[in-house]
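Subject: for your reference before the review

Hello V.,

The reviewers asked for a structural picture of the protein, and I figured it would be easier to keep everything in one thread rather than splitting it across files. Below is the amino acid sequence we used in the manuscript, unchanged from the supplementary table.
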Amino acid sequence: MGAGTEPDGSSRSDKEWERFLRESVAGAADAPKEPSARAREVAKRLREEPDRGLEGWRSYTPAQPKRRKVWYVVGLVASLVVLALVALAPGRVADLFADEQSESAPLAGETTRPTQGPPAEAAQRPTKEEPFRGSPAASWASGAAGITVPEARAVGWMGAAEVERALAGSRDFLVASSLDRAVLRGERPEKAIALINPHQKDVRDLLETAFRTPSEKNDPLLLFSRFEPSRTQLVGDVVKTRGRLTYREGERGALQVTADITFVYPVTRANAGGDDEIVRTIVRRELVLSWDDPAKVITKPGTFSIISYKYNMTNGGCDAAKGYLTPPFGKDRRADEAGTKIDPYDRSAPVGRGESSGDGCGKATRS
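And here is what came back from the structure prediction:
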């Protein structure tokens, strides 16, 4: 029986039925003389429970249970859609989460040597918009910001303020030798050279020869990062870096600064046109610099002497020294199996071996 339906089959609207009941209870003059048994029963109940009003069972709708059921169905459908996307395009779904992570803040600066390399990243192809995509370097700081400089204190012949200036000068050399855009395009690193003690004969001989007739012994890459502009061009304006400066007292009271920095350069072919292959050349350098006491060592104020230099390099070419980093592309990249396999992002072990080494060309296990 539907709402408001009389036993004889006639139908009344809810409004009419409510008016009928109210008039029946009130004893209105025009109320039916002989209401149905159902009407009499309801009227009696209303008289006995006057405070209940007319909000009874007719107007009640169970909204909350129905809403929960609707949301349950919506959630179930959304879950099925996600599962379908994972099954059909797992790589794309991983990219979505990786892109979200890539927007996070850079890692805190490195203050001590790590105990292991960074965890493996999801395999993702770098793009011109995101050249560090799929690489641990994506979360590294950019440029000089990735070089941690410790707090200065008095050491040897230098007070704290002088140590602070020497640490800043050491960082300036790293910027001028491995981050300066003109130097990376192959120009002579004049600013960096100006910070080296001009009275250090062996280094001066290296510098005079390296840029004129580079060779394995006299190679600019021993101290500077350079690409041949007719062959290679940098992607974007950012070079990712990670590393730190440390210092102690050296010989004759000198301030000895050690720099251990990894540089990640995203590059592509010069005039590549539609070819968007991007290679990340990774160079890790360790330099030991001596800020000598002018009273004990012949030096120019504001300059340092180089005690040693080492580097490891991947995706930078392993041919005879040409004075430039030569990243392999296409078939050359797949055929380039020379060198010891290394993880270029693992900074837990020292750089290379020997006092002054440039034979650090290796095959990257990841880039």
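For the response letter, the relevant points are probably these. The chain has a mean pLDDT of 80. Residues 116 and 131 are 24 Å apart (CA to CA).

Happy to draft the paragraph if you're swamped.

O.
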